[in-house]
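ugh ok fine here u go
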Amino acid sequence: MYHSRKIERASYESLAFRYIAANTHPDHDTIAYFRSRFAAEISALFVPVLLVARVSLNERFAADAPACALTAVEGACCETALTQMQHTLKTTAGRTLYALRKSTVEPAIGVIKHVMGFRQFSVRGLDRVDAEWSLVTLEYNVKWMNVLRMT
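structure:
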């Protein structure tokens, strides 16, 4: 749920939202202000969440992402990572793992769009759109980490 008015309504109707909001009912202006006020902090959470995912679910994510992408998250895509990935792709097991990307990495946008229901931005301006997209992708990553942990 992405719109502040719908979140406000859900704080009255949904048990899950009431639990998260500690049985309070923030109005839509407060929710919108919170998003606006903490936009930079929300955007800054993206990389730490990916780093937590890499540490806690290293085996699963390593099978799903190129070595360069993993080091790029930390800010340094190095020659060693590329060499390691090229070597891995020469093996049968490496090619099999890389083939899994077709069914696990590329559909992320489709999941965000069709499953999570995010089809358009509700804000204007590059900074605000960036903050909203960060919030959506954080939600996606946290849900995905939870699903992987449960399996």
